[in-house]
Structure formats: structure tokens, C-alpha cells
Amino acid sequence: MIQISKELRVRIVGIGKVGSGIVETFAQCGFTVYGVDTDKKQIDNALNSIDSDLKKLLEKEKITDAEKDLILSRIRFGTDLGLIRDADVVVEAILEDIQAKKELFKTIDHLVVSKEALILTNTSSLSVTDIAAATERPEQVAGMHFFNPVPVMKLVEVVRGVLTSKETVSLVKQLAITMGKTPIVSADSPGFIVNRLLNALVVEATRIVAENVGSIEDVDIGARLGCGHPMGPFELLDYLNALPLVLDVTDYMADGLGERFRMPAWVREMVKKDNGDSIACGRFYDRKPSS
Ligand code: 3HC
Fold first, then answer.
1. Does the annotation count 211 as an active-site position?
2. Given 156, 187, 218, which residue is the final one in a domain?
3. What distance in angstroms lies between residue 147's CA and the mean position of ligand 1's atoms?
4. Angle, CA 246 vertex, CA 11 and CA 78 arms, to 5°
5. Is 157 a residue of the active site?
6. Are 149 and 227 members of one domain?
């Protein structure tokens, strides 16, 4: 069994906004981490985003120039999936597409040499058991679900697939703690714990607007000032900048858990009007997307 330490070789596959945040967080915590993405543009975006985050920390005097350089020196990016061969830990963070994830897990299983490696998925809602079934080592596959913005949010949801071993769950919890996060454990159910809570709020917020009970702005103010949330549900949806994806996830949750997770028509129309083909389409406020 592997031992959790900062010497572990950590490889992140898929470096969009969350994947890049995972790379940044591992590097900040002292791990040497590779980020792999077949899209070179994602690598450029990740480099810019990490550099800009570290500059902000430098300006706030939370890190020194030398520490910034040290963090950056721990990170390597590439487009070749072969970079994961020597991994002790792989975290997959590609789009929420079950077929794509299953194909990728099959490839990861073939590529990663260490028989002890942990193969983890950052899926926010899909079945970890199904993803694990694409490998010949489902007991070493678990969910390791991070939250946006990854360097700031303190939670990691550890998802136990049907065949995930107790040792794997314990190792992923230790890994999260080593990263300065607090782990919680969820069974493999659509949306797990947090997206079940969060999407119940988000879907209800869209219904409140559909029923003319309150405006988008007032729902957000209500959530912030009445419930103590850092952002209102619509502000959060804009911040995540992925409404079509949220629509897919809530539909998946509605299929598995009940109609209470189904978004109302006006949100679907909004995505359709924006063509639904861009991940960034569908915004509630006329503000620039966050980087
Ligand atoms: N590394 C380390 N620390 C960092 C950092 C980094 N890269 N970036 C920022 N920080 C620190 C800042 O220095 C600051 O510390 P300070 O308070 O001591 O100065 C602190 O983190 C907060 O940073 P900011 O000042 O930039 O942030 P705000 O206070 O404006 O808060 C927010 C922004 C964290 C986004 C807050 O509004 C929030 O919590 N919003 C809700 C986010 C949320 O709900 N996320 C979950 C989304 S759902 C999800 O991700 C699940 C997925 O499946 C879709």
C-alpha cells in the first residue's frame, strides 16, 4: 500500500479551471505535480491562471518571490498522456461525460505502471462505480471532488464506489488532509453530498424566479444576507460559468433522485438561446466571466 507523503508523484489529467486549481493546490502544498491536457490552449490558460493567483498572493505578502518560484518549479505541464506512467496518484478532471471518463480510465489503467497507484476522479455527480468498472483495479478508484476555487475552498468530497476499498478511502482522506483540506466521505449517489445540497438551492432559486416570487437580484441578496452564503445562487452560477453543464448535471440528478432537481423551462430556454454549445453560455448578470 502506498504511504501518503509529499514525495508522491501526482498527475492531473484535464486542466480546465478545476484541474488547474488542483495542480496549483498540490504544488502550493509541496507536491511535484504534472498536469496533462491534450488541448495546448488549456495548458496556456492554466499557466496564466496559476501565475496570476501567485502574483496576488505575492502582492498580499502571503508568499515571497522565492516561494512563488519554488511553487512554479514543482509544476510541469504536457499534452502527452504518457506523462502519467510513473504516477502514484492520478486525479482525472475532464468534462462530465461518462463515456469519455470511462475511456480515459481504461487508458489510465493500462498506462500507470504502479499497481498500488490511486486512480481518482473529480467527477461532481457521475457514478464512481461505473467509472471504476472501466479499470481492472476498481478497488483503487475513488472520487476526489474539489470545489471552485480549489486553492481557497477547504472541502474535498471523497466518494466511495461500490468496489472502492477501505484502504483507498482512508488514503484519499489522508491525501486531502495533507493538502490542508477537510475530507468528507460520500456513498456513490448522484451529486454526492454537496452538489445535492447546492443544486437543491440552485434549482429552487430558478423556480422562485419562474413563479415571480422574487427577482434574480433579490434571490441573491436573500441568500447572502439572510442565509450568510458568500454568493447568491445566480452569482454562483455566473462564477462557475458553466450553465449548460449544470443543466446536464441537474437533469442527471433528476433522473436518479427525482423531479425536484429538474431545472424549469426558462433556464433551458436561456441555454438553448445561447446555442448551448459553448460551456460559457448562459449568464444571469451582465458581467464579464471570471477568469
Ligand atoms: N491560494 C491560496 N490562497 C488563496 C488563493 C490561492 N490561489 N487565492 C485566494 N486565496 C486566499 C486569499 O488571499 C484570501 O485570503 P484572506 O481572506 O486572508 O485575504 C482568501 O483566499 C479569499 O480570497 P479572495 O479574497 O480572492 O476571495 P473572496 O473573499 O472574494 O471570496 C470566493 C471569493 C472564495 C469565491 C467566495 O465568494 C465563495 O466562497 N463563493 C462560493 C464558492 C462556492 O460555492 N464554490 C463551490 C462551487 S460548486 C463546485 O465547485 C462543485 C463543482 O462540482 C461544480
1. no
2. 187
3. 10
4. 20
5. yes
6. no
Which of 49, 124, 125, 127 is flagged as catalytic? 124
How many whole angstroms separate alpha carbon 159 and alpha carbon 128?
7
Name the pTM for this structure. 0.95
Q: What is the pLDDT of residues 233-284, one digit of tens each?
A: 999 999 998 899 999 999 999 999 999 999 999 999 888 877 665 555 678 9
In a domain, 281, yes or no: yes
Contact 131, 101 (CB under 8 A): yes
Catalytic residue list contains 48: no
* Domain coverage including residue 169: 10-187
Residue 133 in contact with ligand 1 by CB distance below 6 A? no
* 279 in the same domain as 156: no
CATH at residue 281: 1.10.1040.10
- 8-state DSSP, 82: G
Total structural domains within the chain = 2
Confirm or reject: Cβ of 230 under 6 Å from ligand 1.
Answer: yes
User: Cell triple for residue 52?
Assistant: 496570476
Residue 273 is predicted with a pLDDT of 78
